Amino acid sequence: MSVDVIVAVSWNAEKNALGLAHEILRKYRPHIVFRQELTGAGADGGRALYAEANALGLFPFMASVHEGRSKNPVGVMIDLDLFEVVARTDHDLPWKPICHVQVRRKGLPRTLHLGSSHLCHFDPTLRAVEARRATTIADHNRTVLMGLDGNSYGHRRRDEISKRLRVRMIKDRVHVQHRTIKRFGRRVLDTRPSEILTGGRRPVFIDLGHYAGTVLGQRRALTPTASLRRTDQGPPQRIDWMLSTPDLVPALLSFEVIDDQDVRKRSDHGLTIGRFHGGRFDHVMSTPG
Question: Of 94, 96, 206, 249, which residue is most buried, by most CB within 10 angstroms?
Answer without folding.
Answer: 96
